[in-house]
Structure formats: structure tokens, C-alpha cells
Amino acid sequence: MQVDSITALDRAFELAARLGELMQATLTERGLTPARAEVLLVLRLHGRPMLQRELSHSLRCTPRHVTALIDVLESGGWVARGRHPTDRRATLVALTDQGSGAAERMDTERRAAAHSLLGDLPATALAGFVIVVDHLLGQLDAPHLPPAEA
Amino acid sequence: MQVDSITALDRAFELAARLGELMQATLTERGLTPARAEVLLVLRLHGRPMLQRELSHSLRCTPRHVTALIDVLESGGWVARGRHPTDRRATLVALTDQGSGAAERMDTERRAAAHSLLGDLPATALAGFVIVVDHLLGQLDAPHLPPAEA
DNA sequence: TATTGTTATACTCTATAACTATA
DNA sequence: TATAGTTATAGAGTATAACAATA
User: Among A87, A47, A132, A21, which Cα is nearest to B132's?
Assistant: First the structure.
């Protein structure tokens, strides 16, 4: 198959859109949104309660937005706020059992989905895919950043 | 390189996030947003003025949202509303010179970006990439839709 | 009665700025 | 004075529901 770079980039954008839609639909079913789900995944990855300030760094968003996210997640029973033992300004955010279970399920399902979506492809195709993706990611990290859009 | 399907899917999600960020930054520089830019591109692709109802279908969003998008694009000088010759309920949306120029520039730059980002990769890698992407898109279109998330 | 576009309302993501309590 | 989190406000994407004008 003859493939030019424009075709490849167009496909990358289309895939991006589709994965986003699928992710959103899956999360909506269980009462989460992408931003809120990521809070749970970050907390699970960290393994221990986190300060909102730390969440702000990990999620690369503003402290104000963390407040809003935690407000909703707390009222939904996914996380709980707790006092920091020594710093009375700080708030520790911990996963509840419900939140922990949801995060674990998301991780498990991500692996299952990968196998279901890609398991029947030859290793050479997967390798070519990852080479191109990594190449793209590397170029996007570079300081000169060429423009691109939909 | 040994690549499993989880790695590949994770890379796909990361690429999706990065492309989205880049696109957004590029558009913000020229006073557009992804949703508004897509209106211009759809109008350019169509080649003639479109009813808001048609835009609603092409953009796969509600008529209400089209109203909001066109309101902003019209006040920014990107598009102009006009009367339908026979149906007085309908509104025809046309690109202005400014909007047409912007759409054309976006299209040109998309091609340039593709070459800049991918031009130095071997054709075999690009072919592998497109095979995997098309395979993923095909699976996502299938009716049984396995779940996936970030 | 069906269709086009609009007003009204709402939820989510995300940001900046000003403020409170604490360090 | 610096930091952690909050209240206040705002713009953007997106949706549903009710409604007006017209077909």
C-alpha cells in the first residue's frame, strides 16, 4: 500500500477523534467524565492520598479546577477529603472504595480493550505503528513545533 | 522492537492528546477554536453556501449549537448569513473572503505539517501505521464496541 | 402538521483574579 | 511574605426543551 504523509496525519486526527468519543461514551455510562476519571487514575497510580496542589501538578490544571473536580467527585462518593496531619491549610484527597474500584476497573478494561482492538494484528504492523507515533510525539516535543489542524 | 497491544493503544491515546493540544494552540493564535475552524473547513469543502440545518448534519451537532457557532463566526467576519431565495425560514451561511482565506491557509498548512512531521519516515513505517489506524477505526465502527479509556 | 432557526436553560472543561486561613 | 484552597467570574463546547415563523 502506497501511503503519503498527509494520509497518515489525517488518519491520526480521525483516530484521535474516535478514541475521544469512545472514551467519553464509556465513562458517561458509569457517571464519570474524562477529567474526573483522570483524577481517579492519577490517585490510583500515586498509591496514596494526594494534596490538591499535587493533583494540580499531575493533572496540569489550575488549583481552582482541582477544587471543582474534587467537589463533584466527593459528592459522588468517588473520593474523600481529609485533613493533613501537620499543615492545616492543606487537604488530602483519597480514593474511596468506590473510587478505587472504578479506577482499577478502568485499568483492567483498558488492557482488555487493547487486546480486543489490536490483538489480531501482526507484530510488524504494531511495530510500524509505534515507530510512527513515537516519531510524531518526538517532533511535537521539539521546540520549533510546526503547525497542524483538523 | 517488541510491541504489545496495550503499548500501542496507550501511544494512540497520547498522540491523540498531543495532536489536540497542538491544533488548539495553532488555532488560538489566529482567533479560532477547533469547533469554529471546522465550520470554515466544512464550508470550504462544500464549495457553496450551506443551510444551518446542513451544517448541523455535517458537523454532527445540534441546530442550537450551529446558531451559537455562526453567531460568533459572523460577528468575527469569518462567515455571513444570507436569505434563502425561496424558503424564508432558511438561512444560508457563506464564507467571507477572510473566512475563505483562513480555510485555505489551514488546508495548506495541514499538508506542510504532514511533510514536516512525517516526511523523513520510510514508506513501510507509514504503511504499518495506516494499517493499524484503519484497523482500529474499523473496530470502533463495529456494532459491539469494546470499552476503552485514558 | 412538519421544518428552520431561535430563545431559554443547563452541565462540563478550563482559565484568571481576588480572597481567607495558615505557615 | 508565601502557600493551600476557595469564592467570583468568564468563555467555550455541547445538550434538551419550548417556541416563532414559515412551509
Answer: A132
Residue A95: strand pairing partners: A79
The stretches of chain A forming alpha helices (DSSP H) are 5-29, 34-46, 52-59, 63-75, 97-118, 123-141
Contact B19 A12 (CB under 8 A): yes
pLDDT of A30 over the 80 cut: yes
Mean pLDDT of A39-63: 97
Strand C at less than 7 A from CB of B64? yes
Mode of pairing for the β-strands spanning A91-95 and A50-51: antiparallel
Tell me if chain A has a CB within 8 Å of the CB of B146. yes
Of the candidates A91, A81, A77, the one whose C-alpha atom is nearest the C-alpha of residue A32 is: A77
Kindly report, residue by residue over B85-103, the tens digit of the pLDDT: 999 999 999 999 999 999 9
Give the CA-to-C1' distance from A131 to C22 in angstroms: 50
Asked if B91 contacts B81 with a C-beta cutoff of 8 angstroms, the reply is yes
From the list A38, A109, A119, which residue is nearest B147 (CB)?
A: A109
Half-sphere exposure of B66 (CA within 13 A, CB side): 22
Q: pLDDT, tens digit, for every residue of A94-130?
A: 999 999 999 999 999 989 988 988 888 888 888 888 8
Under an 8 A CB cutoff, do B22 and A148 touch?
A: yes
**CA atom of B95 to C1′ atom of C8, Å:** 29
Q: Which residue is nearest to nucleotide C11 (CA to C1')?
A: A33
DSSP string, B89-126: T-EEEEE-HHHHHHHHHHHHHHHHHHHHHHTTS-HHHH
Whether B68 shows a pLDDT value over 90: the answer reads yes
